[in-house]
Amino acid sequence: MIAASITTNVMLGTGLLGATAGVIGTFAVLRRRALVGDMLSHAALPGICIAFLITQSRDLIVLSLGALVSGLLGIAVLTLLRRWTRTKEDAAIGIVLSTFFGAGVVLLSIIQQQATGHQAGLHSYLFGETAGITRHDVLIIAGVAMLCLIIVSLLYKEFKLLSFDPEFAAAEGWPTLWLDLWMMGTLAIVTIVGLPICGVILMAALIILPGAAARFWTDRLGRLLVISAIGGATAGALGTFLASPLPQHWLHNKFLDASKLPPGPLIVLSAAAFFVVSLLFAPERGIVARAVAELRLRIRIAREHLLRALYELSEPHQPDRPYFDRAQLLARRSWSEWLLNWWLGRLAARGFVELHDHRVRLTPAGLAAAADVTRTHRLWELFLVDTAGIASDHVDRDADDVEHMLPAPLVRDLEERLAAVGRLPTAPQHVPESPHELL
Amino acid sequence: MIAESRSSPHAARSSVPALEIHDMTVAYHRKPVLWDIDLEIPEGNLVGVVGPNGAGKTTLIKAVLGLVPLASGKVLIYGRPYAEQRRLIGYVPQRESVDWDFPVTVNDVILMGTYGRLGWFRRPGQAEREVAERCLAQVGMSDFASRQIRQLSGGQQQRVFLARALAQDARIYFMDEPFSGVDAATETAIIELLQSLRSAGKTVFVVHHDLQTVRGYFDYVILLNMRLVAYGPTDTTFTPANLHKTYGGRLTILDEAAEAVRKREPIR
After folding, report:
1. CA of A154, closest CA in chain B: separation in Å?
2. Looking at beta carbons, which residues of chain B come within 8 Å of A156?
3. Fewer CB within 10 Å, N- or C-terminus of chain B?
């Protein structure tokens, strides 16, 4: 089946393109140059039109050369604007991008009105297309993408240094200007070979999205590039597939006409889906993981507050463990009755408290846990009073915020400091007295 | 220019000065920020670069390292131009000059100090990793090798930069405020490290802010305020009179002249 085989070919091409865009785009994102790709692709449009007007040819190489020339011209104008006028970078990018794109759209309309036979189709450069792509074109796109990947992997160490600390690189004698030109040149070439498939309007998204998404998954540059490449490749291939006649054919879809769905937006939406999934579900940096960690911390803090309140109520009666009324606990902190009861239920389930109607008391295990929590709190309070010189009536709340996050080595360090000045009590449970009055 | 004495408490091992600057003027966007600097520093000294904010301390270092163009004058490292002597230089930039959220580990950053020796395309191997390990141990950060750099405190970040400079295995080090944002313990550790570098015959230039510690730390001082106020051994140069000249207000005439040059107006 011919449609399937050409689709597979194009998918391979766009997959490779997506991988390369992801890799070089990661460097652009890390260097806060993400918008350069956007400007470049928009600025390429007039070049494509002029190349067509001169040669009357739709050859990929001819049009890409035109795109490259006007894209680079756009970058030159941007550099001049920034360097010699008071225009700031973001405004300059906006000006160049829209002016060049406006010129491109005017030229597109002129071409449309020309009476040549094969003019139809330059409009496909706006959102991209796969229908007009030949095997030959796919080969060129894949070849250029491969070449760019090879350049980046050869210059990995140099690009890493340049991106992290360009001044250090320059002081070490690296030709940072040339390295920068290589990096931005590679970005420009990848952007431009992607134009026939992704279109000038959305190509930049394929540069920016995979790198930005991959950043959620790792803190290592090498892995970041690999994840970004995989994300970009998947987006490229998936978007092309969705824009091909195949899904419609298989799903017997009568609503969408295959030839009217451009691949550019579908590739970008696929990459955006990767970004959203990363944003939500990446471990550690993802929103869900952070919400869960935050919730866990809150749960632990609430549990520790309750244990400490119970300990402080029991403290004068030790070693007895008398029952207290829930109302006494309610009075100690601003927690709601409903929440308090829920917490007490959880503590009871862990065997830390015994519940008796409206009354509650610590079990021996609960007392030990509560003593531990109280101890950390008071160690931190003592440290604040003695060393940091904070007034003793303020330390309760200050300690409250920090004590739950103190790692075990720091607690040991606190003990040593306090022991050194003779403030660490040697009572059986090692819980120091509170430095301030208790309620 | 005042250079009372050329002899140093740590007598020069090489007869050629580690650093010579002749008639150097540096301008940013045509506005001069350093005027006519002339100095010679012998090898094997800890050198404090001292002056008020905006005096051009960072600019002096960047100009020596070729990071900003010279409007005039020349810089010699062991008697030869900087471009030929790059392998002899170690650099600790200001901590704020990089993005600490960059996806690299402490170890990656230290390894960057070996890139210069490695040259094009070659990746760090076993030998470089051993160098990095040793340099990390020298700054007491061995436990942090695989940490992402964002997770470090200010003092730890500063030590990472120092370790990277150590990995450059240089003869002359230029350090831009290595003591900024570090606690007292780290400051002591850093100064001990610098002293051990000096004992090994290295020359270390340090941009420094705390006037209290200048006498304790440095053999030589360079007092800057848009021009060279004085340089020489700390004992004879770090005097109240010279300090007054350095900090006693900016020389408004220089400011006005610089502004006039920028606007291309003649000075009235």
Report:
1. 6
2. 123
3. C
The pLDDT value given to residue A107:
92
Q: How far is B148 from chain A (nearest CA, A)?
A: 6
The DSSP bridge pattern shows strands A324-325 and B46-50 to be unpaired
Q: Compute the mean pLDDT over every residue in chain A, rounded to the nearest whole number.
A: 84
If one counts the domains in chain A, the total is 2
Q: What is the pLDDT of residues B220-242, one digit of tens each?
A: 999 998 889 999 999 999 988 88
A160 near B CB under 8 A: yes
User: Could you report the per-residue pLDDT of B19-71, keeping only the tens digit for each?
Assistant: 999 999 998 877 788 989 999 999 999 999 999 888 899 999 999 999 998 98
Same domain as A311, residue A280? no
Nearest CA in chain B to A156: B121
CA distances from A122 to A12, A42, A239 (A): 23, 14, 21
At position A43, the amino acid (one-letter code) is: A
Question: A168 and A43, same structural domain?
Answer: yes
Q: Which residue of B has its CA nearest to A171?
A: B65
> Is there a single domain that holds both residue A115 and residue A244?
yes
Mean pLDDT value of segment A292-318: 86
A385, part of any domain:
yes
Question: Within 10 Å of residue A149's Cβ, how many Cβ atoms?
Answer: 18
Query: ∠ CA(B149), CA(B152), CA(B155), 5° rounding?
Result: 120
What pLDDT does residue A268 have? 93
* Residues in A 18-57 with any Cβ partner in B closer than 8 A: 30
Looking at residue A281, what is its pLDDT?
Answer: 94
Q: What is the mean pLDDT of chain B?
A: 87
More confident residue, B254 or A197: A197
Query: Do B53 and B83 touch, CB atoms closer than 8 A?
Result: no
Q: Which residues of A190-223 are buried (b: 16+ CB within 10 A; e: fewer)?
A: bbbbbbbbbbbbbbbbbbbbbbbbbbbbbbbbee
Q: CB–CB of A168 and B148 under 8 A?
A: no
CATH of the domain at A137: 1.10.3470.10
Does the beta-carbon distance from B103 to A172 stay under 8 Å?
Answer: no
Question: Do B102 and A171 count as a contact with CB atoms less than 8 A apart?
Answer: no
In this structure, is residue A435 part of a structural domain?
no
Statement: residue A134 has pLDDT above 90: no
Do residue A165 and residue B93 have CB atoms under 8 angstroms apart?
yes
pLDDT tens, B88-108? 999 999 999 999 999 999 999
A219-226 LR contacts (CB < 8 Å, sep 24+): A219/B103, A219/B105, A219/B148, A219/B150, A220/B103, A220/B104, A220/B105, A220/B108, A221/A160, A221/B102, A221/B103, A221/B104, A221/B108, A222/A156, A224/A26, A224/B103, A225/A22, A225/A23, A225/A26, A225/A152
One domain, residues A256 and A230: yes
**Looking at the structure, do residues A334 and A403 belong to the same domain, yes or no?**
yes
Residue B103 sits at the chain A interface (C-beta within 8 Å) = yes
- Residue-wise pLDDT for A209-261, tens only, equals 999 999 999 999 999 999 999 999 999 999 988 888 777 667 665 665 555 67
Domain C-terminal end among A230, A254, A285: A285
**End-of-domain residue from the set A255, A285, A315:** A285
Q: Which element (helix H / strand E) includes A10?
A: helix A2-30
Closest Cα in chain B, distance from residue A288 (Å): 21
Verify whether the Cβ–Cβ distance B112 to A221 is below 8 Å. Answer: no
Judge if A190 and A83 occupy the same domain.
Answer: yes
| A234 and A369 belong to one structural domain | no
Pair (A153, A216) in one structural domain: yes
Q: Does A70 touch chain B (CB under 8 A)?
A: no
Domain residue limits at A378: 300-420
Note whether residue A121 is domain-resident: yes
Q: Quick check: B110 contacting A, CB < 8 Å? A: no
Give A397's pLDDT tier (boundaries 50, 70, 90): low
CATH number of the domain at A346, please: 1.10.10.10
Q: Domains (ranges, CATH) in chain B?
A: 19-263 (3.40.50.300)
Average pLDDT over residues B199-227: 93
Is residue A234 in a domain? yes
Chain A closest-CA separation from residue B206 CA (Å):
16
